[in-house]
């Protein structure tokens, strides 16, 4: 009997970050040890554990027997703590504006479901985190990429944004700091983006600020805090700067400065109710993170910065690699300058994996057009592991010439 058909929708989905794990797992099954620098999960690397007080918050909730469903929009205490946090970032966020989800990823699915129709568009940075491309097509919408400048710190190319805006663009996306490039947009750049979006009355902004506390420039700014005209969905959560991605807790916070999101908000609330709720004890763990001291964050950021600096130094010494220094997050988007690889980053990644057992992600997995000729490196491994990875990459590049 032949296979039962899969939906075309599902068959089209790609997620480069985990797709490259398939050949790596096959090599591991043969007994090889792989240096994995592919996944943006801080817990996958030693030395950056989830803070103890957050784990206690989660455990205490379990001990109290809080294992039932919670309210669909999130626990009241957590919504209030998130609203306080967003308020401190400069906008008038109230608990009612906050909706707790199973991570930013679920928030995205809900936003796309509530705002996109056949023929609508999402304008997202190129390169970008893959779900911004994968999900909109499920709703008959299309993701168009605006250019980040590969020669100028991956800054937003505003002319390109302007040229690609039209009445069908429902969502303009800013990931700040960006995954995979690490670029940080400052308040001037955010103001420019808002002034472009405000010319299009049905356009809303998604501000994915999940890496906001990992900002080495000091200039990262909340988009909602700058917008007096355009509605903003602020996205954040526990996965990155609170070092607990497996808890699957994140949120969207709706900033509606001209009160035009009533219908969209109603749609979002219906969707949230229909999927019941986010994990109850995990919300309590996040609450501990938001309400107790964050002095630990500075140490974590210093550790991440030392790793970044080591990678920048190694890259500057290796023929065949070039990089724009990232201003935030924990990624580097490295350019392959040898002509052999400049147009075949996927082959580079797969050949490097097979020959030297280092796992990276091909840049074209983050944008076929604007990521080609690059690879993404997660620089959270220990310094000696990063050094070993660069030794291997250098050896591979030399051998392949
Ligand atoms: C820009 C960006 N947004 C969202 C996510 C996922 O967030 P969550 O774990 O809250 O679903 C990631 C994970 O890598 C990311 O890089």
Kindly list the characteristics that best describe this protein.
Aspartate Aminotransferase, domain 1, 401 residues, 15 helices, binds pyridoxal-5'-phosphate
Task: Tell me how many strands there are.
Answer: 14
The low-confidence parts are none
H/E series: HHHEHHEHEHEEHEHEEEHHHEEHHEEEH
The CATH C-level class name of the largest domain? Alpha Beta
Question: What overall form do the CA principal axes indicate?
Answer: globular
What are the bound molecules?
Answer: pyridoxal-5'-phosphate
Please give the CATH architecture of the largest domain. Answer: 3-Layer(aba) Sandwich
Overall tally of domains: 2
Number of helices: 15
Q: Order of strands across the biggest sheet?
A: 2-9-8-7-6-3-4-5
CATH topology of the largest domain: Aspartate Aminotransferase, domain 2
Bin the helical content. 25-40%
Walk me through this protein's architecture.
The protein has helices at 8-11, 16-19, 21-29, 52-63, 76-88, 103-115, 131-134, 158-164, 187-197, 262-274, 280-291, 296-317, 339-342, 345-356, 383-399; strands spanning 35-36, 98-101, 121-126, 142-149, 155-156, 169-175, 204-208, 232-237, 250-255, 321-323, 331-336, 358-359, 361-362, 374-378. By secondary structure, it is α/β, with parallel strands linked by helices. A hairpin with a 7-residue loop joins β10 and β11. The chain folds into 2 domains: 8-49 and 296-399, Aspartate Aminotransferase, domain 1, CATH 3.90.1150.10; 72-291, 3-Layer(aba) Sandwich (Aspartate Aminotransferase, domain 2). The chain has 15 helices and 14 strands. The model has no long low-confidence stretch (mean pLDDT 96). Strands 2-9-8-7-6-3-4-5 form an 8-stranded mixed β-sheet. A 4-stranded antiparallel β-sheet has the order 10-11-14-13. 48% of the residues are buried. The protein binds pyridoxal-5'-phosphate. Pyridoxal-5'-phosphate (PLP) binds next to α6.
């Amino acid at each position: 009997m032949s296979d039962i058909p899969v939906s075309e929708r599902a068959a089209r989905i790609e997620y480069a970050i985990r797709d490259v794990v398939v050949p790596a797992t096959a090599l591991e099954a043969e007994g090889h040890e792989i240096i994995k620098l592919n996944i943006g999960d801080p817990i996958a690397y030693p030395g950056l554990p989830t803070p103890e007080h957050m784990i206690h918050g989660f455990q205490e909730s379990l001990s109290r027997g809080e294992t039932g469903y919670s309210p669909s929009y999130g626990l009241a205490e957590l919504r209030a703590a998130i609203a306080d946090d967003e308020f401190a970032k400069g906008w008038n966020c109230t608990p009612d504006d906050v909706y707790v989800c199973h991570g930013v990823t679920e928030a995205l699915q809900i936003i796309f479901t509530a705002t996109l129709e056949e023929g609508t568009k999402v304008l997202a940075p190129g390169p970008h985190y893959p779900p911004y491309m994968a999900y909109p097509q499920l709703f008959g919408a299309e993701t168009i990429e605006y250019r980040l400048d590969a020669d100028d710190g991956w800054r937003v190319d505003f002319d390109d944004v302007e040229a690609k805006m039209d009445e069908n663009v429902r969502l303009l996306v800013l990931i700040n700091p960006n995954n995979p490039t690490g670029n940080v947009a400052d308040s001037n750049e955010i103001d420019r983006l808002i002034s472009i979006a405000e010319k299009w009355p049905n356009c809303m902004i998604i501000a994915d600020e999940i890496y906001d506390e990992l900002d080495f420039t000091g200039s990262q700014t909340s988009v909602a805090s700058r917008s007096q005209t355009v509605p903003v969905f602020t996205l954040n959560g526990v996965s990155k700067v609170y070092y607990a991605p497996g808890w699957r807790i994140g949120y969207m916070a709706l900033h509606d400065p001209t009160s035009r999101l009533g219908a969209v908000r109603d749609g979002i609330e219906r969707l949230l109710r229909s999927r019941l709720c986010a994990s109850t004890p995990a919300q309590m763990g996040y609450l501990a993170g938001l309400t107790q001291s964050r002095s630990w964050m500075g140490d974590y950021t210093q550790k991440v910065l030392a790793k970044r600096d080591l990678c920048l130094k190694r890259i500057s010494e290796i023929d065949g690699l070039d990089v724009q220094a990232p201003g935030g997050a924990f990624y580097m988007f490295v350019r392959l300058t040898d002509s052999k690889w400049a147009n075949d980053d996927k082959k580079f990644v797969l050949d490097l994996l097979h020959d030297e057992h280092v796992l990276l992600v091909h840049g074209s997995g983050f944008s076929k057009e604007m990521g080609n000729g690059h690879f993404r490196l997660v620089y959270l491994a220990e310094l000696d592991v990063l050094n070993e990875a660069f030794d291997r990459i250098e050896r591979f590049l030399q051998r392949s010439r």
